[in-house]
C-alpha cells in the first residue's frame, strides 16, 4: 500500500507536469537577461544608483530593456514593490511618469533623498554638503546623540564609530534646511554596514568575530571595517560628484527633454492597490519579494534602527510584508479589502498550491521540515500574490504589460514552480501570458537543500503578461 505522502508527491508531480506542458511554448531562455542585468550588479557603478547597495534591486538597464523591446507607449509606469525605485527613476528619465508603492522606510528614505538630489537640489544646498565633506563639522560637536538600537542591532559598531555617529546626528540638528539635512542623513545611512561589525546576508545580519556578539562564537570575518570619517566623506564626495556630472549610459541614445514625475505611496501594496483607480498604467515593471525566507526587516535593521524605528514598528512591518518569511502570520485578506473576497475564492481553487500545501503540512506533522512556518509562508505568499495580480490587472490599461522578476524556490525536496503557478493565476485573471523569460544561468540551491536532496537548479525568470 502506498504511503499518503507518496500519493501527495505524485499528485504534485502530475499537476506540475500539466502546468509545464501548458506553458512549454512560452518558457524561453533569453540570453539578454544576464544575472548582472536582473540584479543590482549592473547598477553598482552607475551615478545615483551606486549610493546605496540594495541587494534586492534589479538594474535600470532591465527597465529600459523592457520599455524599449515592448514599445511601451508614453504614460504612467507602475511598480507595486518599488524598493529603491529603480523602475521609477529609469522610467522617469525616459519621459514616463512613474508611480510606486513601497512598504519599508529604507526604500522611502532612498527614493526621497534621490529625488531631491537628482532633480531638486540647488547650488546653495550643494555647498552645504561640500562644506560637510571638507570641514567634517560633526567632529567639533561635543555632545553625541544617543543612537536608537533594536535588539538585533545592539553592539553593531565599534565604540569610536558609535560615538561619531552620535556626533554626526547631533550636528545634523543644526542644519536648517530639512531637505539638505535629509540628504546628509541619507549619506550616513549609506555607510552603516561598512562601518559596522555586520554584513547583510539575506535572512539575517551576520556578525563579525571582532564584535561582542560574534566573539568566540564564530570565525566570520567581514573584512575591512571602515573608519567613520573616511567612509562618510567618501560617500559625500560620491554624492557631490554624481549631482555635478551628466547622466550615464542608456540604451536610449536620445533621452527625452521632459523627465517624468515620480510619485511614491508609502505602505503595503495590499492596502494601497485597491485605492488606485482602474486602467491607469501603461506597464508594470516589478519584482516582489521572492518566496525564499529572506527577511528584509532583519537585513535592513541597522538602517531602520537609525531611522528611529522601534521594536514593535519593525515587527508590524515584518507582518505587513508580502509573506516571505517563516515568521509571517496569515493575513486577513478580506479584512484588508473586500476586493480580496474574489481573489481568495480564486486562490482556493489552485490545485497545485493546495497539493504543495498538503505535502508541507504532512512533512510538518512528521517533523521533517526545518521550520514549521514554511507551509504558512508558502500558502500566504501565493494567496497574497493572487490578490496583487488581480489588482495589477485592474489598474493596467488594456494592452498594458506586466514584467515581473521572480525566482523559483524549493523546500523539503519539492521544487515550487513559482513562475508557472503565478502565470497560471494571471491567465485565470484574464492576462495573456506572452513569455516566461528564463535567465540562462540557473540558480543553485541553498546548502541545506543540496545536502538533503541533491542538486536541482531553480529557474530565475521574468514573466511577461499582457492585459488583453
Ligand atoms: C525584490 S524587492 C524590489 C526591488 C526593486 N525592484 C528595486 O529595484 O529597488 C521587493 C520589495 O518589495 C517590498 N515589499 C515587501 N512587501 C511589500 C508590501 N506588502 N507592499 C509594498 N512593498 C513591499 C520590499 O520592501 C522590497 O523593497
Plain-language structure description:
- The chain has an eight-stranded mixed beta sheet, sandwiched between helices. A two-stranded antiparallel sheet has the order 4-5.
- The longest helix has 22 residues, at 374-395.
- 46% of the residues lie in helices and 14% in strands.
- By secondary structure, the chain is an alpha/beta fold.
- Residues 445-455 have low confidence and may be disordered.
- It has two domains: 4-105 and 256-467, 3-Layer(aba) Sandwich (Rossmann fold); 119-244, no CATH class.
- The protein contains 19 helices and twelve strands.
- It has helices at residues 4-23, 35-38, 60-69, 86-93, 105-120, 123-135, 159-172, 178-195, 228-244, 269-272, 296-299, 301-306, 311-320, 333-336, 340-348, 351-365, 374-395, 418-429, 447-453; strands spanning 27-29, 76-79, 97-102, 198-201, 204-207, 262-266, 281-286, 396-407, 409-411, 414-416, 431-438, 460-467.
- The termini are far apart.
- Bound molecules: S-adenosylmethionine.
- S-adenosylmethionine (SAM) binds next to strand 3 and helix 10.
Question: Would you identify the CATH H-level superfamily of the largest domain?
Answer: Vaccinia Virus protein VP39
> Overall mean pLDDT score?
93
| Derived structural class | alpha/beta
> Kindly, what is the distance between the CA atoms of the first and last residues, rounded to a whole number of angstroms?
48 Å
Q: Could you tell me the number of beta strands?
A: 12
Low-confidence stretches: 445-455
Which descriptor suits the 3D outline? globular
The order of strands across the largest sheet is 1-11-12-8-7-2-3-6
Helix content: 40-55%
Bound molecules: S-adenosylmethionine
Strand content: 5-15%
CATH topology of the largest domain: Rossmann fold
Provide the gyration radius in Å: 23 Å
